[in-house]
Fold:
Amino acid sequence: MILQNRVRMSELPVIRKYLMFGGLLLLPLLMPASGKAQVAAAGVGGNQSLFVGGFGSYFQPDYGYYNLYGVGGFAEYNLAPKLGADAEVRFLRFHQLSDIHEDTYMVGPKYAFYHHHKITAYGKGLIGIGEFNFPQNAAHGGYIAYALGGGVDYRLQHRWSIRADYEYQIWPSFVGEGPRANGLSPDGLSIGINYRIF
Structure:
């Protein structure tokens, strides 16, 4: 039954533990490195940077025979020019059929493996929660979700960049009907803009 797919109250502590564990893994990336032997010269600053941005998404939800569109936002903290952490939310609420939609709340490491002039290419791995609304609002469930992806940033000015991003998600605990009885694998593209705060 679809109604059995909702997150049970007993499962919420487990989900919270996964999120707390993921946050603890990312804590070293978010804290300044205090044990380094060298520091940046006065007036120069460190290598840390913080970006915030928004995007539009086009996703294949892996449920039904149509695509979903949506909007989202992200914050990215870089401890070094190549290594950082990414947190993102996405709401796939447009082009719904029978009230089916997906939302995600994810966080994880990001690595910039290529940089040349104004172009930076990166890869990322995320973990978080995927929320699914079943047909005709029959049920709404929350599931552990993982994502692998990557993309390209193109710097327009010192603080502004545009971003093209691809993401492949895995929802292993999703229990639906028919061919989607054991997990979902949504994937899609996002185009957006970001602003460097520092």
Notes: The beta strands are 49-60, 68-78, 83-94, 101-116, 119-133, 140-155, 160-170, 187-196. Residues 1-10, 27-44 have pLDDT under 50 and may be disordered.
